[in-house]
Amino acid sequence: MSDGEPLVRWQWIADHTAELADYTALHLRLGLLPVLFGLLVSVPLGILCHRRRRLYPPVLTVANILYSIPSLALFMVFVRYTGLTEQTVMIPLTLYTLSVLVPNVVDGLASVPEPVRLAATAMGFGTVRRVLQVELPIAVPVVIAGVRVAAVSSLSLVAVGQLIGQGGLGYYITRGLQLDFPTPIVTAIVLIMLLALVTDALLVVAQRLLTPWSRSRGTTA
Q1: How far apart are alpha carbons 191 and 184 in whole angstroms?
Q2: pTM higher than 0.85 for the full model?
Q3: What is the DSSP letter of 167?
Q4: Digit-coded pLDDT (tens) for 78-97
Q5: Measured distance CA(78)–CA(88) in Å, rounded
Q6: Which residues, 6+ apart, have CB-to-CB distance to 195 below 8 Å?
Q7: Are the beta carbons of 89 and 37 closer than 8 angstroms?
C-alpha cells in the first residue's frame, strides 16, 4: 500500500458485490451450522449432566480442554481425516461450542424453581414431559445467552479456516495481505462484525419469542 492511497476503494466493493454475497453466505453456513450441531449435542448432554451431577465435572473438563486447543492445530488434525473440506472447519467449531453451551444448559435447568418441578410432577408430568414442556422453556434465557456467545465466537473463528482453504470471508483477508491491498481486508472484517451483530440481535428476538411470559411480566411491572 503506497502513501496517500485510500484505505477502502469503493469501486472495488461495487465490482465484487456478487462475490462478496457468496462468501458472506458461505461464512454464515460455516459459522452457524456448528452452533446448531453443538446445541443438538449440548442439550441432551446438559440434561444428563444436570440429572447425574457426577458426570458434569469430567464433561466440562473435556469440553474446556478441547476449547483450549488452538483452532489451526485442530484444523490440521482433522485434515488427515476429512481433507480440505468444510467439515474440517465445522467439526472443530462444533467442539468449541460445547464449553459454552453445556454449562449454560446445566445452569438453565438449575435455575428452574423446585416448586415448579414439584407442581409439574403433581399434575402428572413424567420426567421427559416435564423436562421438555416445563424445565427447558424456563431455561431458554440462560441457554440463549450461551448460544449468543458461541455464535459470535464461531463466526470470528471461521476466518482462520482460510489457512486450509475454507474460511468464508477469511479469503479476502489472506488475499488482501498477499496483494498488500487493504480494501478486501477491511471489507471482510466489517462484514464479519455485521454478521455477528445481526446474528446476536436475531437471537435476542428469538429469546423474546420463545419466552412470551417474560414480556408479559415486564409489561405488568
Answers
A1: 10
A2: yes
A3: -
A4: 888 888 888 999 999 999 99
A5: 6
A6: 24, 27, 28, 31, 155
A7: no
